[in-house]
Amino acid sequence: MIEPLRTSSQRRTTLAAIVAAGALGLASCGAGTSTDTDATSNAVDESTDASMMSMDSSASASSTDAGVTPLGTADIAQKTLRPEASSQLMVSNVRVGSHEGVDRVVFDLVGEGEPGWFIDYTDSPAQQGSGTAIEFEGDTALNVNIDGTAYPFELGKEDPDIGTVDGAGSITQIVSAGTFEGRSQFVIGLNEQQPYSVQVLQDPHRLVIDFPQG
Question: Which CATH class is domain 79-212?
Answer without folding.
Answer: mainly beta
